[in-house]
């Protein structure tokens, strides 16, 4: 798979015509790891410390699809001012790029299940009418009981279709790629 790093942005997002898919989730849900697994190479910086993604990072997949990794929400050890800055950045991104965004992939840790912040993100995406899909991450670390509980909790918030992944094991790569192609080409 051909992938190119386009840039890291904290403001002045570039104007272009590419169709975009966006990856959102808690600070340590594994957005960067999932992107790396998807494209087959370490293009997104992965850190053990939550909240390392502090800007919007864009990658061009196959010369035509923009993958966008936004700062995580949740418990990153950063100042309140930094969190507010991220919030403004993300809201600005969604406002400015709305016409380009084809789908938002909401990543949820399969061990933890949907948190209140995940539920708020899903509600917000529904409210602003942006298509989304839910991706459960880190399934290699979750027991069958934890995975089942996460799936049940997602059904409660009206999510019935879920992509099950493990960046470590490469699980769900084909399904995720197929889903991206469907939303971009469909």
From TrEMBL:
Question: Could you tell me the Gene Ontology terms of the biological process aspect for this record?
Answer: division septum assembly
> What biological function has been recorded for the protein in this entry?
Necessary for normal cell division and for the maintenance of normal septation.
Family the entry assigns: Belongs to the TRAFAC class TrmE-Era-EngA-EngB-Septin-like GTPase superfamily. EngB GTPase family.
Q: State the organism of origin.
A: Hydrogenobacter thermophilus (strain DSM 6534 / IAM 12695 / TK-6)
Question: Which key words tag this protein in UniProt?
Answer: Cell cycle, Cell division, GTP-binding, Magnesium, Metal-binding, Nucleotide-binding, Septation
Protein name as catalogued: Probable GTP-binding protein EngB
Stretches assigned to the EngB-type G domain: 17-186
* CC annotations in GO: cytosol
Q: What is the annotated signal peptide range for this record?
A: none
Single annotated GO MF: metal ion binding
Q: Which cofactor does it need?
A: Mg(2+)
Q: Name one Pfam family in it.
A: MMR_HSR1
This protein's gene is called engB
Does Nucleotide-binding show up as a keyword for this record? Answer: yes
